């Protein structure tokens, strides 16, 4: 999902040595001409030429520095795709731990009684509220914070675990279906982006944002109708049928497409950050964006699977 933090000036193109396009001064160079100073006859040529008063150890150090391979992006503290992937895996591992806790907590009483009324909604509520607050903080924070992003992952784990346990208890088998479908959508989107066949564009992003606001308005209306008892269907307006197809399925398909494009935006932001030499810490922001989108995608697919199961 698009992140305001990626508009930070550090994502603007810079020279190879930082803000200056000229290499820094190095020992042995002339101050103005950039040429090597005159060498005494018989003196060792560059690299590692001897200087008056230089000890063998100092000379060896200079020769070693010249012989060493050039520093890569990691050595320079810059963002890389590989590092962003590692950070993403770490976040999902943390989320998985609390997801297991949320699952067990949710079904603690229901497993022994086989009664849906014994299902605990506490982890679901704690995870949703904590995740929402931390998501807002991380989205609008100017500089990414690894501890805050990890905290978000932990709360999201409680939410995902609780929601998954609830739906699996009511509609057995939907969690596996949603998990496999989410992995498939993620893999296909990543493959298309990596091949260059799918790219983020200004026009598509504008359409995406309009669709997002429309979907949020629909979701809010649906929640209000369900809470007030105006619509007592299991999924509210989503349970309505159009030509025999539940409205929730029709909307869900469009939302999955929106989530897939959101993944494209996440991949593009990471790519831009790497290309522009953003600081390494922004890899956490890229990982955070991917987690937000994947959780959204999973929940939407889980709901579609549940709607299909309820209509059988």
Key features of this structure:
312 residues, mainly alpha, 62% helix
Structural notes for this entry:
This protein has 312 residues and is an all-alpha fold. It has one domain (74-311). It contains 9 helices and 2 strands. Strands 1-2 form a two-stranded antiparallel sheet. The longest helix has 30 residues, at 282-311. It is globular.
In short:
This protein has 312 residues and is mostly helical.
**Biggest sheet, in brief?**
2 strands, antiparallel
Helix content: 55-70%
Could you tell me the number of beta strands? Answer: 2
Secondary structure class reads mainly alpha
Number of domains: 1
Mean of residue pLDDT values:
80
Low-confidence stretches: 11-49
- Bin the strand percentage: under 5%
List the helices and strands and how they pair.
Elements: H1 56-67, H2 81-106, H3 110-113, H4 122-140, H5 146-170, H6 174-194, H7 202-227, E1 241-242, E2 245-246, H8 247-275, H9 282-311
Antiparallel strand pairs: 1-2
């Amino acid at each position: 999902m698009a992140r305001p933090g990626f508009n930070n000036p550090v994502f603007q193109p810079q020279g190879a040595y930082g803000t200056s396009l000229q290499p820094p001064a190095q020992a042995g160079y002339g101050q103005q001409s950039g040429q090597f100073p005159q060498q005494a006859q018989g003196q060792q040529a560059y690299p590692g030429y001897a200087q008056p008063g230089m000890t063998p150890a100092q000379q060896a150090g200079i020769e070693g520095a010249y012989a060493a391979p050039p520093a890569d992006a990691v050595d320079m503290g810059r963002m890389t795709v590989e590092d962003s992937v590692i950070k993403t895996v770490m976040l999902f591992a943390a989320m998985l731990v609390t997801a297991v806790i949320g699952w067990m907590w949710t079904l603690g009483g229901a497993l022994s009684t086989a009664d849906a009324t014994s299902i605990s909604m506490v982890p679901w509520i704690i995870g949703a509220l904590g995740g929402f607050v931390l998501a807002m903080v991380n989205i609008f924070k100017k500089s990414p914070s690894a501890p805050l992003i990890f905290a978000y992952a932990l709360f999201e784990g409680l939410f995902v675990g609780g929601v998954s346990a609830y739906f699996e208890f009511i509609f057995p088998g939907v969690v596996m279906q949603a998990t496999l479908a989410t992995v498939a959508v993620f893999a296909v989107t990543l493959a298309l982006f990596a091949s260059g066949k799918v790219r983020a564009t200004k026009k598509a992003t504008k359409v995406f944002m309009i669709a997002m606001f429309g979907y949020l308005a629909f979701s809010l209306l649906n929640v209000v109708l369900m809470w007030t008892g105006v619509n007592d269907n299991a999924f509210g307006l989503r349970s309505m049928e159009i030509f025999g197809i539940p409205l929730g399925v029709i909307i869900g398909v469009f939302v999955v497409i929106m989530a897939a494009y959101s993944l494209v935006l996440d991949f593009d932001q990471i790519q831009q950050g790497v290309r522009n030499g953003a600081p390494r810490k922004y890899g956490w922001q890229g990982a955070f964006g991917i987690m937000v989108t994947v959780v959204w995608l999973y929940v939407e697919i889980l709901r579609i699977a549940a709607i299909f199961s309820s209509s059988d």
